[in-house]
Amino acid sequence: MDFKDILIKRRAINFFDPDRDVEESLLKTVIEDAAKAPSSYNLQPWKLMILRDHDKKSKLQPLAFDQPKVTEAPVILVVLADRDGWKEGNSTLESVFKNHVTSGKMQPEQREWFLGATQGLYGKSSESSQAFANKNAGLFCMSLMYAASAHGLETHPMDGFDHDGVKKELNISDNYWIPMLIAVGYLKPGVEINPKGWRQSYEEMVIK
Ligand SMILES: Cc1cc2nc3c(=O)[nH]c(=O)nc-3n(C[C@H](O)[C@H](O)[C@H](O)COP(=O)(O)O)c2cc1C
To answer: What CATH number is given to the structural domain containing 60?
Structure first.
């Protein structure tokens, strides 16, 4: 599919077919494709929880303004932004550095420089760690939605939920912030999608 078609085709779908599941292998492909997203220093400070179980989704729905798509969609992705993703000892950061060394991009003695750079940029305050986690996980979310679209799936991003309630319900540790839940599935048969909403024009977006 042409990228322009994906841009047009991706919509926030409100009505999912509850009887049509998303194949495990297809979802895996979507997630692996989405992982091509860019990130600060390639630190990829994101993780995912995949909810398919109806009981689990039912417990989530009241925490998400009772949005019916939480249970109607066969899959809910809970995206986790890692506020500690810049820290020494963080398993993803350590893998990134190890790969830099094995690929010859960095020398082992550059470790202190690398850790100092990530700490200096993202670890100065709780705001900078939060911003680091949000912006990178947000890009991953966008990638997930476009990848899903490219593979014939529909999605719906949601930030209408009780953040602390969801964290507690799913036993999510404090280093993670949840930028959004993403419902994934197929459009309910017979439902028509509303025309795409208003978008800013080039002139409105570009500030002179
Ligand atoms: C971060 C984010 C959070 C959103 N949260 C919700 C939500 O909780 N409930 C909802 O109905 N729509 C939600 N939306 C969907 C937007 O309303 C929708 O993307 C927007 O109206 C544009 O429509 P389109 O995605 O179909 O182009 C969210 C979108 C984003 C990007």
So the answer is: 3.40.109.10
Q: Is 160 in the pocket of ligand 1 (CB under 6 A)?
A: yes
Question: 180 is in which domain, residue-wise?
Answer: 3-85+126-205
Cβ of 158 less than 6 Å from ligand 1:
yes
The verdict on residue 120 lying in a domain is no
> Is 54 inside a domain boundary?
yes
Q: Helix (H, G, I), strand (E, B), or coil: what is residue 146? A: helix
Cβ neighbourhood burial of 168 (10 Å; 0-12, 13-18, 19+): exposed
Question: pTM above 0.85?
Answer: yes
Residues 158-192 pLDDT 10s = 999 999 999 999 999 999 999 999 999 999 999 99
Render pLDDT for 33-59 as a digit per residue (tens, 0 to 9): 999 999 999 999 999 999 999 999 999
Is the CB of residue 68 below 6 angstroms from any atom belonging to ligand 1?
no
